[in-house]
Model the fold of this input.
Amino acid sequence: MVMETTSAATDKIRCDACPVMCYIKPGAAGACDRYANDDGKLVRVDPHVILERTVEHGGKLVPFSRTEDWDGKIVHEPSTFVTAIGAGTTYPDYKPAPFIVSSEVDGVDMVTVVTEGIFSYCGVKVKIDTDRYLGPETATVRAQGEAVGHVTTSEYGSQMLSLGGVHHLTGGSKKEGRVTCDTLMDLANCKAVELTIDGGASVVVQAGQPPIVNGVKEERMRVGCGSATIGMFAKQWHGKVDEVVVVDDHITGVLSEHQAGKLLDIPDTGIKMKGRRSTPGRYFQVADPGTGWGGTNISDPLAILGPFDAKEAKPGLSMLMVSTTGEHSSYYVLDEALKPVETEMPADLKFSVERIQENCEPALCTVLFMAGAGGSLRAGVTDNPVRLTRSVKDALTRVTSGGAAVYVWPGGGITYMVDVTQMPAGAFGYVPTPALVAPIEFTMKLSDYAALGGHMDYVKPLSEVRGGDDVRQLPWQHPIPGPRT
Done:
């Protein structure tokens, strides 16, 4: 659906697939590497991707009933799904989407409208499962020295980054926009990207892989905060050690004071903690954030303790100090002066530390692409764009991205998020405006499509799409929900 204009003097073609409007000489590609001049004809460089059910690509199925005519499907879904990867774009959006494909599902006529959206309003949300401190909230995140986002509020055992967005893509310098676009595209295509955080760490992020913080690959995320760890393992420590301190940047737990310890009748030990006491057995701000024990900046856990109270503490009192990942642990016994002396840890306590490690999930980077599709690309679906938005909100139209299920945010517009690891490889591109190019598909009943003012004259049957020379068929790698009927 892309139009081109030829310059007679140079035989260059002017491409209108994005606002850059490149002049492309014969045998060359445009600035986006997505369109090229093939002997005077403007062509899409990458093949159009459609997804086929695994059974058609040698996948194995295990029947769950002895039904002779069972075809291996758990639910009735179409065997072929047309993605927007390689489909082309609707820009400048007065024209219909490149592919509006009809098919039949359980006797119901369906239509899928596919287009590669050009998104200036887009970014990625990065979830980094690690107990390691990466940087203060709101700190600037940089790539190649350029600001590309910021640190946002951390979650349970995870550090969170918000990268990209229209202000970084268009509101700063030309280099900032270019670097932001490159960073987003690499992350969305599951490539490794090195980021630095002002006042914090350097971290290599890659979707589906462990983070590398300050050159060290992380192994696990925390089992819980210090207080939660006390609650989970108090019974396993009961009778084996007098006191346990679980060091944590957020909430450090103390067994003898904790409610779990009280219910187990663990006596007071006279321990004194630094930091701010919250509820019994829970302490805030025992140290500054960092890359040491439990996400703090300490390498010596005794630094968070004050002198033991001689009225309650006794020589020989034993104490286990452990981090929330089990990565750090030490065992102490009080001497005659009530000073903790590090001693070899008993085997049963080593086992409890290993149990903490076992209960920690692997460190992992998750990248969610997030974009606003409430703009003019809707005109490629219908001549009355607001009807498409309403149809999505009313669950009459299903939105996917490269065939992967998305989460559509409530409220106005079509703002969606998708896990990039669920999408086929190389699903994302760019245009040098700068903006990201991402696949988006809208699937609905054919009757609903007609009702919302769809471009009915451009609907083509699925058989016409599957037979093209420039079509690449891939197996579905993940369970993708079929269209509603």
Notes: Residues 61-67, 480-485 have pLDDT under 50 and may be disordered. The chain has eight helices and 33 strands.
